[in-house]
Specification:
- By secondary structure, this protein is an alpha/beta fold.
- Among the domains are: about 70 residues, 3-Layer(aba) Sandwich (Rossmann fold), CATH 3.40.50.720; about 120 residues, N-(1-d-carboxylethyl)-l-norvaline Dehydrogenase, domain 2.
- It has 15 helices and 4 strands.
- A 4-stranded mixed sheet has the order 1-2-3-4.
- It comes from Triparma retinervis.
Length: about 325
């Protein structure tokens, strides 16, 4: 072979199944993921993904390497999107539904930025490249056939295929970009996008900033509870670290799980996710069973995590 049987094999994928990769590798225990966040020379976060094959020695070596190169590593399990991107999918999806319901690109981005986020979902899409998300959806068969029983909007698909607005690298995405303004990195309101969206809107609603924040971020938080419930991530603060270091979540709000638990209140999160699930039926609005149980038990998610850790230490 090209490398020795004890050489650690790490993939930087954000979408490929690491269990599947490990399944065809000699000595699969050496297989793992290191998901760097772009731009990797700036963003400190690395999701270190173990799969069902990964050995403890591989986890230890990758964790040490992450520290050695000056990154903040979080150990997570293997699932579609891992932790960060799995949670961001309902966030960006719901943001697009808000456009259909009368909000503007600037309304949605502005609401979460006012909350303290570094950037909103549409600026994030333009920076990452709207074509990347389109290709992922196409590979999943969503572009041609929708997302099964899931409510689906084709707005981000049309943005790419009809208008070629793939983001900052093309000088146009959800926003326009002028090389003379902020070196082409400052989003400017697009007349083309606004005229197009005006024809796509099913109605016009006067959205409050609180509505926009809750519609955008509560699905993300709910997905975080599902990730904890499934054991993909051990503790809520690990999710908080991922979002602070990888997605520009404001440190002073403590991460999405802390924000929901300590600042919003889990009762309100459950109330609104239940309400929106009844209205829209999307899976990302279906309340996590962990969230339901915590509210019923009048318990916070950090208290739950600490109790679980104590129980494990006694084994």
């Amino acid at each position: 072979g090209i490398v020795s049987n004890d050489c650690i094999l790490c993939t930087n994928t954000s979408t490929l199944d690491i269990d599947e990769i490990g399944g065809v590798v000699t000595n699969p225990g050496r297989t793992m993921g290191m998901h760097f966040f772009s731009p990797a020379n700036v963003m400190r976060l690395v999701e270190n993904i173990h799969c069902s094959h990964t050995s403890p020695s591989t986890i230890s070596a990758v964790t040490a390497h992450t520290k050695r190169i000056g990154k903040v590593g979080v150990l997570v399990g293997n699932c579609d999107g891992f932790v960060g991107n799995r949670m961001v999918a309902p966030y960006t999806g719901e943001a697009c539904f808000l456009l259909e319901e009368g909000a503007s690109v600037q309304d949605v981005d502005g609401a979460v930025v006012d909350l303290g986020m570094a950037i909103g979902p549409f600026t994030m899409g333009d920076i990452a490249g709207n074509d990347i998300g389109y290709l992922i959806r196409k590979e999943k068969g969503w572009v041609e056939g929708g997302a099964g029983d899931m409510r689906y909007t084709d707005l981000p698909d049309e943005l790419v295929t009809r208008f070629g607005r793939i983001g900052q690298k093309a000088g146009k995405g959800w926003y326009d970009y002028d090389p003379e303004v902020g070196k082409g990195r400052v989003g400017l309101a697009s007349e083309e996008v606004e005229a197009w969206l005006e024809g796509e809107r099913g109605g016009c609603k006067d959205w409050s900033e609180r509505d926009l924040v809750e519609r955008s971020l509560f699905p993300l938080v709910n997905e975080g509870f599902k990730i904890l419930e499934e054991g993909i991530c051990d503790r809520p603060e690990h999710i908080d670290i991922i979002y602070i270091y990888g997605y520009g979540w404001p440190v002073w709000r403590g991460g999405p799980m802390w924000w929901a638990d300590q600042q919003v209140g889990l009762e309100h999160v459950l109330e609104m996710t239940t309400k929106y699930h009844e209205k829209y039926q999307n899976d990302w609005w279906k309340p996590s069973q962990l969230l339901v149980d915590l509210v019923a038990d009048k318990k916070g998610v950090y208290e739950w995590a600490n109790e679980k850790a104590k129980a494990r230490s006694k084994l």
